[in-house]
Amino acid sequence: MSTPNDSNDGTPTGTEPSQQPADDASVGLIGLIRITIMLLRARPALLVPFALAGAVGATSAVARIESPYPVDMVAFPANGVVHLSVALVPTLEPMAEVNSGLVLGLKPVFLAVLIGWQVGLALAVTVAFAGVVRLAARSISKTDAISSPSAISEVGSDESRGLPGIVPSLVRLGWLFAYVLGVQVVLLAGLFVVGAFGIGPGPGSTGLGLLFGWLFVVVPIASGLFLTPAAIVIGGKRPVEAVIESAVYAVRRPLSVVVLLLTTGYLGTVLTGVFHGGPSPRIGVALGTFTSVAVGGTLHAIVVAAAYICWSADGYSSH
């Protein structure tokens, strides 16, 4: 099975992990940002998959307003300027504020519809995410752009440098779909636990317990999973192997991964408020959702792909 360390330009494969400090390798946050910007300029078509997914998400979000499911739509300004969120994969409904009532007490027919709804959204996210990650991976030079972050002239070139084709195999799409669906199932299960066991801030509670739980449980777990999609799509690994490899990168570069995780999550949230206060709530929800998914989702996928390839080339592979 090929990995991002395999190339046809004489680059050695299977190198041992570097002994330098975790966040002191050749490509850090600034290098990833520069590569992302150059890649978007060279490949504007990268926006297409998540633009299409954004149309699906906007339609779904407006449909939820009309549905009997207990979901509120809240744009960024209503959430407050300081709004921390994490996104393991881009969400197609970033404005949806769900609660435990979404899964508690549903009749079988409504539960079946909800499950099918979520499966459809997971499939749309999978296809868009895999498409952007794959195209971004092909467009990143594994030599000039990575070994010297200032030399990004070859980002966007047609050279694949040994990377696989643009269209992912059905096997990799299937494993990514399983991962995306698994993430959604865990989130819905979390809502069920919160509602069934009354976990959460009650009367007189300051919410500090939830805050500490978010900081010391949710963020570390999410950081460990952040690069899993790229390990599946680019590395060709199954979800368990991909999770292990992603966790290795998170341990090697904890600060970088946490910053990327929180930044992509915050970006997906803040872009929902671009059309806040529009002519009607439905139009605002539709346009805010589309913008957040099209722009935020694309940047999220590019950053994940760039980080995985760059850090693999730096010798941080788990094999």
From TrEMBL:
Q: What is this protein called?
A: Uncharacterized protein
Q: Where do the record's region annotations for Disordered lie?
A: 1-23
User: Membrane-spanning regions, if any?
Assistant: 44-63, 109-133, 176-199, 211-234, 255-277, 283-311
Its domain of life reads: Archaea
UniProt keyword terms in alphabetical order: Membrane, Transmembrane, Transmembrane helix
Organism, as annotated: Natrialba taiwanensis DSM 12281
Is Transmembrane helix found in the keyword set? Answer: yes
Establish whether keyword Membrane is in the entry: yes
Q: Where is the composition biased (Polar residues)?
A: 1-21
